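S.,

As promised, the FE2/S2 (inorganic) cluster run. Input:
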Amino acid sequence: MYSNEIIFDFDVENLTPVLKKKRQGNESINEAIARELDVILTKYKGQGDSLLEVLHQVQQLIGFIPRPVQMKIARELDVAPGEVTSVISFYAHFTEKPKGKYQIALCKGTACYVKGSADIIKRIEKEYGIKPGESTDDGLFSLEVVRCLGCCGLSPAMTVNGEAHGLLNPEKAINILEKCKNRGM
Ligand code: FES
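Predicted complex:
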């Protein structure tokens, strides 16, 4: 059984909206993930050209795609495990580890870049000890660098859990994140 192979250690409040919706009755989190994962992988069995779609659905379901799940996807879709891992590391949307409670998306598109977004990224990396694609050890923040947030007039810009903040400089960005930190987990 899949649920014996991979154990997820989740707090219920950290479940993705998709998993919250799909979980049935008294099902454990592991059982719910196993069942839904089987639904996805049965549908796309042997279809290596559907890898992106499968990764998208699994990311939506679990919130991240850990190595044992990557291995299972590779087996079921009949693709090389290395291919799954390299697709995940290529697209910022996919993560191997859970994202933080506060998900920072910092824009490095042209408008933001010329107005200093690289300095903001460096400052966040230094302040919280994370690189793009990583989360802080306490699970509070995760950092993602994106190409354009669609609010170039406010550059340099970032979103925190989808909420846009613009006309930033390193200090302003840290102030916003410290307010999140003070609100805690
Ligand atoms: S380039 Fe940053 S919001 Fe468009």
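Residues 107, 109-112, 148-149, 151-152, 155, 157 surround FE2/S2 (inorganic) cluster (CB under 6 Å). Residues 175 and 184 are 14 Å apart (CA to CA).

- D.
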